[in-house]
Design a protein that fits this description.
Shape: globular
Radius of gyration: 18 Å
Structural class: alpha/beta
Number of strands: 10
Number of helices: 8
Helix content: 25-40%
Strand order of the largest sheet: 6-7-8-3-9-10
Distance between the termini: 33 Å
Strand content: 15-25%
Length: 252
């Protein structure tokens, strides 16, 4: 599976009729099993780009291809995880995870078995009968990860999924996500505003300029996993990426 974002631009009208250019000429090629982080200044179009890749919005120009098939709407091949979890509060955890399979017409016994498999994968095997309000923020986000994986997407898209968590829980979730990624080898595109998070997680970091978002640079992370956040190589890379973001804010 190969994901290709080809010369994507996005313009839209505000409520006052003003045209805003969110993205300009963004092109990215993602290989199967890669973990890519998308990083840039606030308002640079990171979430807009991810929503276009997911088929939730259409680009003004350009296209998104999965194995040369154009993405023109939501598809089970692309699983989306949002910052606010987007769990259904009236459904138990097991039923939240199996929801996508239910929509796909999978038999109840099969979808329940699949949901239990991914519930175990994210370390919540004992919480299938719980409701979302009974879980912590980190646990709810793990349910969201399990729900996205249960439909067996080719690509998992994550929009600042840990942004609402406290620092300790966030670091723990990053480690758990890498463990899940190591087991599943799903292709991941992960939007974040944290340079530290991107350096810890990614194979490559796509750095966008300020709006309209353009590719400032695609940075390969050379540090082997598991990574020590305090190592010299990670510190040097953080400084370099922060410099790219500062340059991007200046439109250079």
């Amino acid at each position: 599976m190969k994901l290709r974002v080809d010369n994507v631009s996005k313009r839209f009208l505000t409520d006052t009729g003003e045209e805003v250019e969110a993205l300009r000429g963004v092109s990215i090629e993602v290989e199967e099993g890669e973990f890519i982080c998308i990083l840039g200044p606030s308002g640079c179009g990171k979430t807009t780009l991810l929503r276009i890749i997911a088929g939730l919005e259409q680009p003004t120009e350009g296209w998104v291809l999965v194995d040369d098939d154009p993405v023109d709407g939501p598809t089970p091949r692309l699983g989306m995880i949002f910052q606010d979890y987007s769990l259904y509060p009236w459904r138990r955890v097991i039923d939240n995870i199996s929801f996508g399979l239910e929509l796909a017409g999978v038999e109840k016994a099969d979808r329940t078995a699949t949901a239990h498999k991914y519930l175990e994968l994210v370390g919540l095997g004992e919480f299938g009968d719980a409701f979302p309000y009974e879980l912590s923020g980190g646990m709810r986000q793990r349910v969201a990860v399990a729900r996205a994986l249960a439909i067996d997407p080719a690509v998992v898209l994550m929009d600042e999924p840990f942004g609402a968590l406290d620092a300790q829980t966030r670091n723990a979730m990053q480690r758990e996500l890498l463990e899940i990624w190591t087991k599943t080898r799903k292709t991941v595109l992960f939007v974040t505003h944290s340079v530290d998070e991107a350096v810890f997680l990614a194979d490559r970091i796509v750095v966008l300029t300020t709006r309209p978002g353009r590719i400032r640079e695609v940075v390969k992370v050379p540090e082997p996993r598991p990574r020590d956040r305090t190592c010299v190589g990670c510190a040097d890379l953080r400084r370099y990426v922060l410099g790219l973001i500062d340059d991007g804010k200046q439109g250079q």
